[in-house]
Amino acid sequence: MKIALIAHDHKKDDMVALATAFAPLLRQHTLVGTGTTGRRLQAEAGLPVECLLSGPLGGDLQIGARLAMGEVNLVIFLRDPMTAQPHEPDINALVRACDVHNVPCATNVASARILLQHLAATGSRA
Ligand SMILES: O=C(CO)COP(=O)(O)O
Hints:
This is Methylglyoxal synthase. The protein is α/β, with parallel strands linked by helices. The chain contains 6 helices and 5 strands; from the N terminus they run E-H-H-E-H-E-H-E-H-E-H.
């Protein structure tokens, strides 16, 4: 399973905590992330994350493009609903791509936990 991990700045601590809690599971999969999120997950959760561009510089679009080509199977995108983002069109494009291609996309911690628990229970592998 190829999993994309993305978090806005105010949600990055939540992402690190989530990824740390599920680190043994996430290690069994191929991980990709936007630049800053990915580097924090490497440094603080010890996870092997391929880091693309930072979100505002096109990272969301890179993940969306991979997803459209079938190279991303699950997205955890912890969005900050309280802060305006300069690259809002890119964010919408990524979430839309998930809907177009029927790729599971969790946009908050509660949903992400359910997806990851399901992944753990079903034993899907990379
Ligand atoms: O902005 C983002 C998603 O829209 C996340 O990008 P970073 O992980 O580079 O902060």
